[in-house]
């Protein structure tokens, strides 16, 4: 089947099998390997992307379901060399260790802060509970999300 998906602001069209997962489409057909495959069971969140602005685990979405929609991956957050505020916060607050979960954590965090611009620590922890960090770096991840939210609030004022 033919799918046409706006990926990171660029219209992409490919012939895919009906059973192709969005994560496979992004990695194999689009060559965007920042979205990681961690579990294939929606347990870890390493494959989190934004589908029409909402975070989804791309291992549980078919490419066909994204046909005609907009997908943003970790590669699409930065504006050229200018990192997205969430990426800067993860860097500044050391919100990564091995880095495997980082793309999914960043994407889920972007969605979280869009939905709740001024989250509490408890709300960040609850909002990211579907994303696992095997290095147990949650403290710095939470600090990064709170920092990015504060930066966004400051920019809005």
UniProtKB/TrEMBL annotation:
Instruction: State one molecular function term (GO).
Output: oxidoreductase activity
Q: InterPro entries of this UniProt entry?
A: 2Fe-2S-bd, 2Fe-2S-bd_dom_sf, 2Fe-2S_ferredoxin-like_sf, 2Fe-2S_ferredoxin-type, Beta-grasp_dom_sf, Diverse_Oxidoreductases
- List residues of the 2Fe-2S ferredoxin-type domain: 1-77
Q: Output the superkingdom of the source species.
A: Bacteria
Pathway per the UniProt entry: Alkaloid degradation; nicotine degradation
Give UniProt keywords alphabetically: 2Fe-2S, Iron, Iron-sulfur, Metal-binding, Oxidoreductase
Q: Which PANTHER family did the record assign?
A: OXIDOREDUCTASE WITH IRON-SULFUR SUBUNIT
The name of this protein is: Carbon-monoxide dehydrogenase small subunit
What species was this sequence derived from? Answer: Saccharopolyspora kobensis
């Amino acid at each position: 089947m033919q799918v046409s998906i706006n990926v990171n602001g660029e219209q992409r069209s490919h012939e895919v099998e009906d059973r192709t997962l969005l994560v496979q489409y992004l990695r194999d057909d689009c060559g965007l390997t920042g979205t990681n495959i961690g579990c294939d069971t929606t347990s870890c969140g390493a494959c989190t992307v934004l589908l029409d602005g909402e975070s989804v685990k791309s291992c549980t979405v078919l490419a066909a379901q994204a046909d005609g929609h907009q997908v943003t991956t970790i590669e699409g957050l930065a504006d050229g060399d200018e990192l997205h505020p969430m990426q800067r916060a993860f860097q500044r607050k050391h919100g990564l260790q091995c880095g495997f979960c980082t793309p999914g954590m960043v994407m889920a965090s972007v969605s979280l802060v869009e939905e709740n611009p001024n989250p509490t620590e408890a709300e960040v922890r609850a909002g990211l509970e579907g994303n696992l960090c095997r290095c147990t770096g949650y403290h710095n991840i939470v600090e990064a999300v709170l920092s990015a939210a504060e930066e966004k609030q400051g920019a809005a004022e």
